[in-house]
Amino acid sequence: MYQQMIFPNLPVADLAASKEFFTGLGYELNPAFSDDHTASVVVSDTIVVMLLDHERYADFAKKPIADATKSSQVLLALSAESRAKVDELVDTAFSLGATPAGDTQDHGFMYGRSFDDLDGHTWEIVWMDPAAIAG
Question: What is the bridge-based pairing of β-strands 105-106 and 75-79?
Answer without folding.
Answer: unpaired
